[in-house]
Every structure is written in structure tokens, then in C-alpha cells.
Amino acid sequence: MEFTLRGVAWIERIFEPDYILVRLAILLAALVGDLLWIVPGVGTRDWVLALVALVLSAVCRWSQLWALLIQSGLLLLADGYAFAAAPVLKVLACVLLFELAVRGRGRQVAAGATVLGVVVCFNLLDKLPATIGAAGFRMVIVVGVPLLLGGYVRLARDAARRERDSAAERIAAARAAERTAIARELHDLVAHHVSSMVLRVGVARHVLSAGTDPRITQVLDDLHTSSTAALADLRKLVGVLRDPAPFPTTAFVDPGGLPDALTVVIDRARATGLHVKATIDPSATHLDPLRGTTVLRLTQEALANTIRHAGPAAQVTLNLTLDTDNSVHIQIEDEGRPPQENPEPPTARGTGPHEGHGLIGMRERVDLLGGALSVGPVGKGWRLSAVLPAEQKNPRERREATV
């Protein structure tokens, strides 16, 4: 079955306009073989006329009708002066009529078929009605068969195109329904709980007495800020999932806003005690929202993993640079747990029964952009290194990776 499908695909590609050279090579081989071994009495003038006709077949890529009309004129000349290559010219004319039937408009096909039919039967017109049977047979073979085959190929191509469009619409509808269901659950379930958390933390901040330990107040303030930001991101995510447009109109990173977004993430990590030394290329302000969102998510996940595995007092370096070809390089590396804490083996990260989804998500984001991601232990710590190529134009990649 696989071999058959590949064969059909190969045959379909042969009829595409871009494969004109392949078709010409096949016609040239058939023409040479016909003139060398099949047609008797072939002279120099036959070779010249046949090659001129073959060159005209190449013109069918731009104007099948004019190529067929000129080819019909050459065929009329060959019949009138008894060229030995006349049968070869008839074959080439049939091929051009087939090409016209596959790609031309109705009036063009009718005009080309009429002209070719008259030329084929021209030398029989003065002998009618005795030659009406021969004329009809020539019309069927030279005109009818190419029209029939061309019409069949055209209908098959149109049907295949409609099926592809229909399948794409069904897939798009299924994805839209799935995204809508996810958005609904996020709004009704997750966002509801996060909103309740924000409200309760806000109430707790107001009911604390004046003599409360300031560290508790600081933790509640940070929790309120983080939960408020999480609620805002959830609402943005719901907007992206419900956006029916080909490209999302809602973005997590506004154009030019990546450095500020990274600063917010880094400041939150520092508030937990993490020591972050960040170097951000100033040209990151020109980064598109798609790659900006990916850089932001990589940074968030890497810093969260550092806090979880290396502890909130770990040392982290973050470097974000852009090359001259507009590719993005980001590297985040930590030194592991400080000596006074119990060290965790670097290879233990992401290996637990409920861990590793963050690493999978990062790798998926980078793969959608055609980039490269390297994550692994370095000494006592851990390093994440990613390269994101120039902005992708694929609509599916742009839509999926934005989330």
C-alpha cells in the first residue's frame, strides 16, 4: 500500500508546472527513439522540425494555448510537405492538448481542441464524405483521448484539493473545539481557584496586626503579587485559546517588552533568595513576540528548577544574546547547592515520578521554532543552553508556540 501511494504521489508531481523539465526529458527520449527506430526516411529537416516542436512544448508552462496553436501550425506544415516527422508532431500536439485540458480554462480548451482537430483532418476535407470515417477516427484519437485524459486528471486534482481543504477545515474545527474546552476549564476551574487565593491573601494582609513579624508580611505581599500575575497570565492564556484568528492577537510578551518581562521574572527569583547575575542583550527589545515568549518561558522554568533543586540561595548566571543573523542564544547556569546545604546530585533533576514535564515543554517550544536545546549537569550545577533561529513563518508554528 505504501509503495502504491508513493507511486501515485510521484505521478501527481510529474504533472505539476514545476516539473516541466522532467516531462521534456521524457518527451525528448521518446522523440529520439521514435525518429531513430520507428519512423522511416527521417532526414535533417525532420530532426530540426521535431526539436523545434519539442522546444515549444516547454512554452506550455507559460501559455499552453499559444504553444498548442503554434504546434498545430507546424503539424499543418509537416503534413503539407510530407515530413517524416509528422507522426511525432501529432504526439507532441496531443501532449500539449492534454496539458491545456488539465490547466486551461474552458474556452481555451475548446479553441485549442477545435484548431488541432481541423489541422488533423485538413488533408481529408477535400475528399468528404468518403473520408468522414477516417476524419472521425483521427478526431477521437488525436483530440478526444487527450481531452478525456486531461479532464480526468483535472477532476482528480480538483477532488484531491477539495478533500485536502475539507480535511484541513475539519482539523482546524477539532483543534478550535479542543482549545475552547481547555480555555473553559482553565477559566472555570483554575482561574476560579487562583482568584480565590488572591482574595484570601489580600484579606490576610489586611487583618494582620501591626506587630506581626515583617517577614510574614513580606511573604504575603510576594504571594499576593505572584498570584495576581498568575491570574493575569491565565486570563491572557484563555484569550489566546479562544482566539479564532489564524494568528493569536493576544501575546504574553509585547513587542519590545522582553527585557522588562525578564526583569520581572528575575526579580521574583531574587525575592526568594536566589542570586541571579543577568546579562541581557539590548537588541532583545526587537525580538518578535513568538521567540520572546519562548525565551521568557525557558527562563521561568530554569529559575524555578534551580530554586527547587539547588535551593533558594544558589548562584545563577543568565546570558541572552542575539547574533547578526538574528538568532537568539540563551544560557542559564547554576552552581548547585551551596556547601552548607545538603547537595543534590545534578543528574537527579527531572527524574522523579512527577517531574520532567517542564523539560519536555521547553524542548517542545524550542523544537517548534526549529531551534536546539541542551540541558544537563555541569560540575555541581546545571546548565540550560538554547539557540532559536530567525523568526519562523509557518502559521501552525506561530500559533502553537505563542501559547
Automatic annotation (TrEMBL):
Keywords: ATP-binding, Kinase, Membrane, Nucleotide-binding, Phosphoprotein, Transferase, Transmembrane, Transmembrane helix, Two-component regulatory system. The chain crosses the membrane at residues 20-40, 47-69, 81-102, 109-125, 137-155. It is an enzyme of class 2 (transferase). The keyword Membrane applies. Residues 178-244 form the Signal transduction histidine kinase subgroup 3 dimerisation and phosphoacceptor domain. The keyword Transmembrane applies. Its EC number is 2.7.13.3. Pfam families: HATPase_c, HisKA_3. InterPro entries: HATPase_C_sf (IPR036890), HATPase_dom (IPR003594), Sensor_HK_TwoCompSys (IPR050482), Sig_transdc_His_kin_sub3_dim/P (IPR011712). It catalyses: ATP + protein L-histidine = ADP + protein N-phospho-L-histidine. Residues 333-358 are annotated as: Disordered. Residues 295-391 form the Histidine kinase/HSP90-like ATPase domain. This is histidine kinase. It comes from Acrocarpospora pleiomorpha. The lineage of its organism: Bacteria, Bacillati, Actinomycetota, Actinomycetes, Streptosporangiales.
